[in-house]
Each structure stands twice: as C-alpha cells, then as structure tokens.
Amino acid sequence: MTDRSLLILPGDGIGPEVMAEVRKVIDWFGSAQGITFDVSEDLVGGAAYDAHGVPLTDATMAKAQEVDAVLLGAVGGPAYDDLDFSVKPERGLLRLRKEMDLYANLRPAQCFDALADFSSLKREVVSGLDIMILRELTSGVYFGEPRGIHTEGNERVGINTQRYTEGEIARAARSAFELARRRNNKVCSMEKANVMESGILWRDVVNEIHAAEYGDVELSHMYADNGAMQLVRAPKQFDVILTDNLFGDILSDCAAMLTGSLGMLPSASLGAPMANGRPKAMYEPVHGSAPDITGQGKANPIACILSFAMALRYSFDLGDEATRLERAVEGVLADGARTADLMGPEGGTPISTSEMGDAIVAKLAS
Amino acid sequence: MTDRSLLILPGDGIGPEVMAEVRKVIDWFGSAQGITFDVSEDLVGGAAYDAHGVPLTDATMAKAQEVDAVLLGAVGGPAYDDLDFSVKPERGLLRLRKEMDLYANLRPAQCFDALADFSSLKREVVSGLDIMILRELTSGVYFGEPRGIHTEGNERVGINTQRYTEGEIARAARSAFELARRRNNKVCSMEKANVMESGILWRDVVNEIHAAEYGDVELSHMYADNGAMQLVRAPKQFDVILTDNLFGDILSDCAAMLTGSLGMLPSASLGAPMANGRPKAMYEPVHGSAPDITGQGKANPIACILSFAMALRYSFDLGDEATRLERAVEGVLADGARTADLMGPEGGTPISTSEMGDAIVAKLAS
Ligand SMILES: [Mg+2]
Ligand SMILES: [Mg+2]
Fold first, then answer.
1. CA A247 / ligand 1 centre spacing (Å)
2. Is B120 on the interface with A (CB under 8 A)?
3. Any idea where the Isopropylmalate dehydrogenase-like domain is (chains A, B) (predicted)?
C-alpha cells in the first residue's frame, strides 16, 4: 500500500515514448527503495480527441483532481491543427491547469556543465546557470473574458482580455517569495507597468506582499521587454523571476533556450494545498510533442524524467530522492550518453530513448 | 530652400546629447552634399512635462503631423517614475505614435562584424546577422479598451484589452511583405493562435493578404514563444518577422540584445503616405534615456545617427546617402573607435559622444 498517487497522461507525439522511461524510474524507486506509487494512466490532447471527441474527458478531469500529482507528456500535432479551437489538444492542457487551479508554473532553466557547449550563448554566459521562472498560469490574457472573433461593420475583430485580480497576483507572488527563500533569496518581478494598468496593479501587489510578509527576500522589478534582453545578456543575474501568464510564456521559453537543449527541461505547475497537505500538482516536460521524430526512438526522455524529480520534491517531499535522480541524469551526461538531440558537431553515436532511460536507472542503482 | 522637413525631439536623459551628433551629420549633408533639411526642435517626455505639465503639447503634436519626419531621442527618467500614468514621459511617445498612426515599427537587428564579440552569443551565431522585425505599433493590448484598475467586491482588478481589427492586421502585413521584397523575400509571422483568438485572426488575415497580393514572398508562421526560442537558437534563419504590438515589444528587444550593443540600434515607425507621397514617419534609437550616464559624454550616438540613416532611406528616398552613412559608421567601428558602452575586456580608451559624432562626419567626408 502506498499513499502516493500519480496519474500519467502521456498525450500525443513523443509523449508516450518518454513517459515509458519515467515508468522505469518509478519502478526502480518502488523495487529498489520501497518508495511506491499508485499509478494510473489516461488520455489527453489529440489522443483523447481521437477516442472521445474531446481533448480531455470529464472522467479524466475528475481523476486528475483526486491524485497527488499528474505527470503529462505532451499534446498536439499536425493532425489536429485544423480542429475547432474548442477541441484543440492544447485545450485539454488548459482545462487541467484551470480546473486544478495550478496558478504557479515553475520553469527552471539550468545548464548542465556537460552540455554547456550546446548553448548558442558563450559558455561563460551560461555555464552554471540556475534560474527559476515562476509564471502565473491560470489567469491573464489566455483566459480573460471577453474573448473571440466577431464582426464590426464590415470587418472581423479579434479580442482577448488581460485581467488580473489582486488575489491572483498575491498568491503567485507568495509562491515566488517562498521559492526564493529555498534558493538564493532573490525575486525579480517582470511586467509592463509603463504601458499597462494590469502591470501597475501587478507591481503594486507584489510590493505590498513583499513589504508585509517577505521583507527578508531581495525584490526588484523589471519591464518584461528589458527582462528578455537581460536574459540574453546576462542570465545569471537572476534567481527567481516572477511574471504573468503571457510574459512568462515568452520569457520562460527564451530562458529555456539559453541552456541549449529543450529536451532537458522539466516544469511543475502547482496549486493550493489539498486536504493531505500536498499541493495540486502537474509535472510535464517543456518540450512539445515533436511529431517529426515520433515513434523513432529519438526522443530525449530527460525532461520528462526531471519532471518526475520535481514531483518527488514538490508533491512528495522527497527532496533527497529528487536530488539523487537529478545527479543520476547529470552522471549519465558526464559519462557521454547522448540522445539524437544532443549530438554536437563532434558527432558520435546517439543512444535511443529507451537506452537513455536504462542508463539513468543504472546510474541510480550504482 | 528645401522641401525636406524634420522635427527633432531630443527628449530626456542622453537624448539631447546623442541628438547633437545627429545635427552634425545633418549639417554635413547640407554643406558638403547640398542635401538640406528644414529642421525645427521641440520638447517631449519629461522635458515637456517640466515645461508644460504634459509629456507632449498639442502644438508639438500638430508640428509632428506637418513635417516629413520626426527624429526622437529618448524619454523618461527616475524623476518621472511617480507621475500619474496619464502624464508619464512614455505617454508622449505613445501619443505621437497613435495620432500620427505609425502602425509599422521597423526594428533592424544587425550585427556589425567589428562588434560581434560583444554579443553574449557565439560569434558564428550572430556575425552577419541582419533581420528586420516589423512590430504593429498602434493597436493591441497597449491601446485596447476597456483598460484600468477598478474594484470588484473587496479587491482591485487590473484590465487591459488585446484588440485587433482585420484592417489593422492587413496594413501591417502589407508593410512586412513590401519590406521583404526589398530584402530576402521571407516573412515569418508570430502570434499565439493556439491560445488567443486575436492570434487566430492575425494568422488568418496574414494568410489572406499573402494569398491575394504577395504570393511571391515566402511566408511562415510561428508561435511567439517559439519565436523567442528560435531568435536565441538560430537568429539568422529569419529575414522579416511580422508580429503584434506586445509580442513585438518583447521579441524586438530580445533580437536587439543578440547583437550585443543596444547603443547601435535604430528604429523607424511608419504610417500611411501623406499628400507629398512620403509616409508619416518617426525615427528613434532603441536605447532608452540612460539617466545613469546622462551629461557625462559617455552616450553612444550611433543608434540615433543610424536612425537618421533610416530617415534618409524611408522618408526621403535617399537610399544611397543612407548607405553612405551606414558605411561611415561601419568604418569608424572597423577603425577601432569605441564609446564607453563598447569597451570590451581588452580595455582601451573610450572616446566621447562628441568625438564619435566627429569621427563619423570625418569618415563621411573621406
Ligand atoms: Mg511558452
Ligand atoms: Mg520593448
């Protein structure tokens, strides 16, 4: 018996392939360490649409609400590009985030030393990089009403609404300050307070929460466009970056690319604590469904495996086990294990998705 | 007598210093080439607020509407940070853009070979970089209504509205396709059609304009967050990037920083043709007012001088003269002339703002 429950949603494209490697890691923790999980699996995205005509069924949604953590692979693919907006694969993901109220999206951008040369940036600019972007995930312009395309006079008009309440900003800010306390105690908040009233409110509320509750954390503010520049110029100046849904979407991807390989990067999306004290939580790799390499054994499972490491740390309070898993990944990379996406100009023979999973499990056991 | 009119708005901070160097270039074209300009000068931003209580007077606005081209230095500074939103220095700039209806913001990101090592990116990733971002500048979330901060129940709510009409998208798209025809004939349009209806309309209208009028131009689409990643990963894949106001704000700054020095980058903001055939136009450096170095002779005037080169090309159809000025800038850089912002790790003695202006004029004459 275990009191740790996981719902695995492999999704589309390479999702199922990389999730199979996470299964090996989960199994190893159970058999070798006695750390067991109650694992169930279901459909999301295009896979759910194909089976049920919707990118996420109500039954799957209900299951996601019950478990301690959801592990998601990836959604989307060219087969679904022409679907109606309301049933696009991404809507399944957005529904999970919205109904589980996963308001804090944690996007680490870490540069493994063995891979620093894969970055388009100079080694000295990125080696040792370790920043965390906290993107507000359940509000802002991707959710605000009114929205849609309608006709005015004789032309179409497209509308979306950027809308933030004080409470939405406050809880994201608290998550960022809490994170910073466990890291290097610095938060930089990014918005466009110079041209957007929602940015002015964002800055005011962050300042108020800081003054009232987190005076020990170093706080700075930056306009989001300058933030994009500073990430490119000198990313190591940051510890935790706090920003809204839309700016976080762009800035977290910009930061991700600084590290040189998206195949490496995990993410966590956290909400409020449940009855058992664990936060509502979903973990997923940053990379997409990569339809171009689906089914070829070329996918890099590391981002998905590191997402499970984040689950160990943030959902199950297994920080030591998370670190052990992260060290195992670092170890196999230092040993020279490379999937196809990590082939440098020096060449070499890539290992398969499955071989990378096996290597990580072997390193865990060593 | 000349039929070429210029309104110079030096603005705040280093604005007046860099504009003084542009004056030298303008004077040289007049005295050495017989290419003369009717030049007037006025206030904008904090300087206008200090004199008149508003960041742009109606009289200055009227003058800007009459001239062929406005040259603007920079606005803003810490003295104005606590002003009411409605009279912040940036509002003066936004008013100019809005009332002149300067819908096409051209942001070149070019990497001068002599300065490629200043980039945080590897030399091979950026050397020879020459991309142009066309940012829609008069609509979108920085202008849409409703906007503001109000109270709902017992909490504040901040709202902005992303709103694009078909016509607004169409004219920006046409500008991008026209630009591409004069460059490498490729346009990549960026939005978030996967999660925003305004992005869906954007993509649809761009496709329609392309099919109807610009089938000879190569068109691709990219989600804006992926665009940020691709700019960092491999910026030379792009020719013209077409995007909206907010995404363009972030992406153009991200692209600017790839080149390694913001002090180098000009911009143009163009509107519809006037009665004389010239477009409504404003030219300005990308850099800000840099209050930390104001009045010390440390500012780099090159961005402002290259902005005047864009004026020569886009307002006055003086492409050869624009190229001559750009070559002069390239020449002084190749000769080793460096303002303080261009000091590399190898050291050396920086020249002043004024010395850089003199060097460029001397190179023009040589
Ligand atoms: Mg994104
Ligand atoms: Mg900007």
1. 9
2. yes
3. 5-360
